[in-house]
Amino acid sequence: MGRYIARRLLLTIPVLLGSTFLIFAMVYALPGDPIAALVGDRRISPSVVAELKDRYNLNDPLHVQYAKYLGGLVQGDLGTDFSGRSVAGTVKERFPVTLKLAIVAIVFEAVIGLIAGILSGIRKGSFFDNLVLVSTIFVVSIPVFVLGFLAQLSLGLKLGLFPISGISEGWYSYLLPGFVLATLSIAYVARLTRTSLVENLRNDYVRTAKAKGLPPRTVIGKHTMRNSLIPVVTFLGADFGALLSGAIVTEGIFNLPGLGRTVYQAVLSGEGAVTVGIVTLFIFIYIFFNLVVDVLYAALDPRIRYE
Amino acid sequence: MQVHKKKMRLSAVLLTLALGATACGGNSDSEGGGSGGSGEGASGGTFSYTLTNPENPLIPGNTTESEGSQIISALFTGLITYNVDTSKAEFDGVAESIESDDSTLWTIKLKDGWKFHDGTPVDAQSFVDAWNYTALSTNAQGGSYFFENVEGYKDLQAETDDNDVVTKQPTSKAMSGLKVVDPKTFTVKLNAPFAQYPITVGYNAFAPLPKAFFADPEAFGTKPIGNGPFKANEAFRQDVGFKLTRFDDYAGQKAKADAVDIKIISDVTTAYTEVQAGGLDILDTIPAENITTAPQEFGDRFIERESSSFTYMGFPTYDPRYSDKKVRQAFSMAIDRQAITKAIFNGTREPAMSVVSPVVDGSRKDACKYCKFDPAAAKKLLAETNFNTSQPIDLWFNAGANHDAWVTAVGNQLRENLGITYTLKGDLQFGEYLPVGRGKKFTGPFRLGWSMDYPSPQNYLEPLYTEAALPPGSNTAFYVNPAFDAKVKEGNASKTNEAAIKKYQEAEDILLEDMPIMPMFYGKLQSVHSPKVSNVKFDAFGQCDLASVTVKQ
User: Fold this and answer.
1) ipTM entry
2) CATH number, domain with residue A227
3) Nearest Cβ partner of A50 from B4, B166, B265?
4) A155 to chain B: nearest residue by CA?
5) Is the pLDDT of residue B263 over 80?
């Protein structure tokens, strides 16, 4: 197992190297002069423009810019945005916000999704099962921004139960955006759990377990659940990685100063260093959580071995 | 200065969809939610003010957009101030007097008793050091160009080639035109006479900087030490904001409230919802979908005033199709600006009848005779030229900034009134759009905008249409007329403000006869505030006078 993890971690190095270059090249290929876009209609001294371009290596060809970026990266320098703010500082300031939002969302997903999925799975065909099926279809078809504004207007403005925006009330501020962010995945988790459970309940080993007189609680809780959870854990793990890579729309609606909005703004303004820095972090998170999921497989299913 | 708001416009559309999907109207007086953060027990109270992210660190010389400027103007006070209502220069700032015998060598005397927030005195040196720092091109300060009329400015600018590559570093770090006479006096020598110079020095870029700035500019950028009515006790956070408290040793008119909470909210719809819920006190932008309902909903807490912004359409005078001024005049007369401001903008713009915004002393309501809608005269005038009406015209504007609707309206009017079909060229973001214009590649009328740096007609003329302003300057129409340049120069050299204004108006007449650009609209500012605050006033720059806002206890 240890060797497997080490090998997987080593593999991330070429992946990161390749992906940083790809993102860098894509930002470089964005049309338009980023300094001109930044300045807009305003006047600016041509010498100041030259100074800015020199400072951010904008006059260099792609490979030179990338080499300079990698040179800084090796020394732990993630570079700066066009206003001279360090990318590392920005990430450090914003990552906790994204992390909290992702944790709240994943808890909602796991708790509500699993409970709904299990209950409808063991009572297949019941009213509750149908309710879950219909409501999840409904939720999946509503775009997240509609849910976001709806929740903000109804629960925030009309009822005043939750803060409308911002993070000034600690974890409480994250409840509403976290829930909105989670809704889509709650539906996926519920359906995935249900399907997987229903399938496994038809298996021979379940009939055997029932036949030898085990109580239903043990049959479902111990034998069926463990097998049924494998796809769900895969989904949750991958989804946590995705949640951590920022929720542009949700962060925007609820005014949360997270990474999603930063990377959105950075792409719009052609900020190479910021985009590459943050997206690379996202890639790393994604790779890491895939690894965690793979390791969890082995824990859930003893038949799976990595050596 | 271009007003540079990056509010997410997408959200306007999204909210409309959201409301449509649920058929729930969004107007309510319900309380709760959000965080007002009122300072109980304090004498003046706390209120909140919304902005989007400032573009740069909070350094006065590097802040040339509206959001950062609002914060800077709360933290710093310059030599002079501008009257909130009339925009006229007033000596309520640090300067006692700004005088000159020849309009070239200016002597600036400072008042006693002005201090920075760290207790150090505001003296002549703090101005001269700040101005030299801002001007020096290697410091890459956006406000550098404000000092281009000071003697020796060129020595502080790196030489560059056409590809924006530095070919020679600056030869000096201090402008020869700035001299400290004594701690309370300094002199400014200009390259050429400029009678309106005192009016120009109220902008951010002219603010003084304390010694602490030069020790650590980076730390200063998040927690500035100014000399204004409010001071920063904590570091600014992007997308969050910070709290400013009243500076009790302020030498000018002290702030009424104890503190102001600057809250950064990028999504204007979210911010508006916050004001409706009472979680936020003042908002200086209203989402497009709420513009018609806001006046009724907020009553006298809805404020509208004209702003200094000016939208125009330039002509590529280098293109043979548009080289005849009669063609340009005919185009201008064929556009019903009144109809467009009503139908497209719901009255949130004012049709422009001159190139100088009405917020400025010296603006005239009837300067542009070819801006009056007269389709018959337009058609007749166009027939006198050899303009080929069977060939479609291109209408240029930058993408993603909501210009589509009104430029389309302009096109439709030209089609109806002059019989010319049009093609919209609105795919380029500003970063690509401007280089196209600078490279003389516009193939038809193009949209551009302007906001004033200081309230003088000169600011609406010299930086936009003189030969000296050709690209990389802002004269994208490539208009060159020595007679116009001469009138502007005469205005600059005039002894009195009245004489200067007269010359500027003569220059404007020449410009509007030649019509290298068509004036389109003047901007207006709409704002709403909560019942908790009163005495909310906005100036023509679009900035709220935060110091005079009072909070109900």
Assistant:
1) 0.79
2) 1.10.3720.10
3) B166
4) B33
5) yes
